[in-house]
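Task 17 of the worksheet. Students: predict the tertiary structure of the chain below and write it out as structure tokens. Keep your answer in the requested format; marks are given for formatting as well as content.
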Amino acid sequence: MWSALLAACAQSPGEDAHALRSALEHAADARDPRVRVEDFQDAARRARWLSRPLSAVAPRLEGRAFSWRGVFSLESAEGVAAARDERATLTLGASGDYALRHENRWRAGDEQGTSARACTRVGAAFFVGRDDAPPSRLEGAEDQAAACLDSALEPVTGWLALFDDRLAYTVDETPAVHAGRPAWSVRAESSPERADAAAAVPIGAFFEAGARETLALQDKFDARLPLAQTHGRPARLDVEMWVDDATGTPLSGHVDATIEFVKRGVPLTLRVEMSWTSTPSVDVPTVPPDAVHRGPRPRIFEDLRVVLGPIAASAPSGAAEAPLPAPGDAPPLTPEPARTEPERTQREARP
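Model answer:
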């Protein structure tokens, strides 16, 4: 027995003995925001690069100004069914502070309009405003502040991730200086060989929530089935961009795509054109001068008390005031047992 034990101890460690070391190396590699040639050639590494949020690497960009524009047109045999012209400007401070403004001009049938949203983060303060209304300072909104920053370039990375399984990437062997930073020159186009094996992509959600919603900031949809009854097939996908070496951020580029699909039995074509640029910036995001500090939002019952105040004041004297319900005070719902046809008839016949 001892000889067997000594022989086992003398053996070199197997592959399983290095599992912890491999896991630690993989975790460290996943945290490293730098990109390499393999990140564009390997599907798993490419998915990790495309899913990296801008908020996680913004301080590493050391102050930068972005300008993005997206034109989306949904066309049928009768003409343009819906269209959007979206623009976004982003100013990043060296410390991770930012100011983002996103505008959307939309047209659907005979209706058209505009909408805008702005969000600003300065230190721990976060401000959000819509259209021409003064921005409000929100407290305890770390997740919202990060999500708003991520939305600035999400149309680019989100679109690439949506059609990743049918794109073939070409990247230069070494990075070059672009817009003041070392960056990779990347090209991607639809590959017929990969497209034949790729799964169909449901793209009806892009126009599902109505033309008044913006594409870049739309993060959830209704629970109903998508309006695209069949799935989109890309007829053309062309991408050229410069990707930052230190963070994986797409610094500039353009995307041209044509998607064919059917929506409610009508053949449609979705045309997509996106372009964006970035430059070094010394501008520092500042607190909006017309910002309003709303403070913590009260419970909806407190809002009802304010709204119904005059009505409650006109109640007859001596009337008991019902206390505000607390969470969990509602009685449990109990389903009524099914009644037989004679019982139902007798009950309905009662005066």
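Marker's comment: The mean pLDDT is 77. The first helix runs from residue 2 to 10.
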